[in-house]
Every structure is written in C-alpha cells, then in structure tokens.
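Homework help board

Subject: predicted structure for assignment chain

Our instructor gave us this sequence and asked us to write out the predicted structure in token form, then describe one feature. I got the tokens but I'm not sure how to describe them. Can anyone check?
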Amino acid sequence: MRTYRCVTEGAPMRLLVHHANAAPLRAGPDEWRGLTPDGHAQASELAERLAALPVERVLSSPSLRCRQTLVPLARRARTDVESCRLLTPAADPAELAEFLREDDTRDAVLCTHRSTLLCLFAHLAGPDSRFVGGLTHLDGLGMWLVHACRDGETRVHFLGLVREPQPASRPTARPAGPGASRRSSPATAPPSAPAVLPAPAAAIRRWP
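My token output:
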C-alpha cells in the first residue's frame, strides 16, 4: 500500500478528499447516503496512507458519506470529524477557496463532493482551463494537495485515487499428474515505499 510522508518544509498542509464509494439513493434525502462496503474499505485505506502526516483537523461536508469517509482517519488522528458548510454542494467556490487559505485549515484534511470540487477547480482556474485538465477524474476516493502561494494564488496538485479493494486471487491448481506442466504462482509484489507528499514548490512546477 502506498503511504505518504510530509516534506512540505514547514508549510501548512491541506488535503482535499472526494468521498469514498457511496450507496445509491433509495429513499430519503441525498445527505443520508452512506458508504458501500468497498467505500468503507477505501476510507480505512485512506487513514493508513495518511497516517504519517501531521493531521490537526478533519473537516467534512455534513453528508453521511463524507463523514464516514473520514471517520477512520479522525480516529487515527485522535480528533473529531467536524461538519463544515463550505464543503457542501451548495457552497460558494470563492468562499471555499478563501477558507483554504485561512489558518483554520492548516494541516487539515477536508472531504467534499464531486460538484463542490469541480466548482472550486473551475473558480481557481478562471479563464485558463489548463489548471482544470486532468483533475476532473473523480471515480472514487481522490486526494488533492492545496497550496496557498505567496503571490496570492491557490494551487491544487492531484495526488491520486484510492482504488477499490482488488478481489482475492484464486490459489494456483496443482498439476493433474506427473507429466502435467507446473505453473509458477504469481510473485508477491514488494511493499510500496512511502510516497513523498510534494513540497509546495515542487507541486507548482508540475503545472503546465
């Protein structure tokens, strides 16, 4: 599993998260939709990946699926999941962008919705669509590093998606007889080394 360690050189860390896989709406308000079993597995994996980061606050849209996404992380960080109206689909993207520059979001992980993220990215990009390209693939639990630059701009760096758990591999069948060919079992992949959370300057240099 790929984990992250922080090398932001003292700069505040802010991570935006798109909620994990949610169940379809069957009855009641959309805010009541919770995570699927795969979604809960994604949430646990997120907490493990971010275990080495200095998480001070865990902020979420009031929707159940967003709060459930951050519960394992909040437990690891020994803090609570705080409800935040600026992470709802109805939030003003300009107000959210300003909130991401405030001290209240230093070293915070914030979980929100697809529409909220797309509106925020479009607001940050302005007339330059290059800054939105590549950031709209939101099929699952994704992570973005937010950096408030000294020039007054806010930059967003896509870190990747937390994939759904892979189905368990079937055991290799033994040869039927002495003359049957033997198939070697697939090699076990070595554990991934911790990925480096890009320093703010490195994150900016990756922009087109």
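Reply (TA_rk): Your tokens look well-formed. For the description, you could write something like this. The two ends are 29 Å apart (CA to CA). That's the kind of observation they're looking for.
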